[in-house]
Amino acid sequence: MTSDRNTPPDGFPHGVGNPARNALHAAGYTALDQLPAISEAELLRLHGVGPRAVGVLRAALEAKGLSFAGE
Predict the structure, then answer these.
(1) CA dist., res. 57 & res. 71, Å (int)
(2) Quick check: helix, strand or coil at residue 71?
(3) For the segment 39-65, what is each residue's pLDDT rounded down to a tens digit?
(4) How many CA atoms within 13 Å lie on the side-chain side of 41?
(5) Angle at the Cα of 46 (from 3 to 7), degrees rounded to 5?
(6) Which of 13, 38, 53, 59 has the smallest CB count inside 10 Å?
(7) What's this model's pTM, rounded to 2 decimal places?
(8) HEC profile for 1-70?
């Protein structure tokens, strides 16, 4: 089994701080691939998720050819 040292175990990219990571988990989002189901506005309503985390998540989604809902 190999591990990617650049990706945390939950699959969200580095740069997403613990408050945002915890908020995502509490809302039931455990993988980056789940985020195209929600909008940026919905993410920002989660306590602990701010513009910086959204930017990091957006970049990670775009790298996979994905985007937030409504974009």
Answers:
(1) 14
(2) coil
(3) 999 999 999 999 999 999 999 999 999
(4) 3
(5) 10
(6) 59
(7) 0.85
(8) CCCCCCCCCCCCCCCCCHHHHHHHHHCCCCCHHHHHHCCHHHHHCCCCCCHHHHHHHHHHHHHCCCCCCC
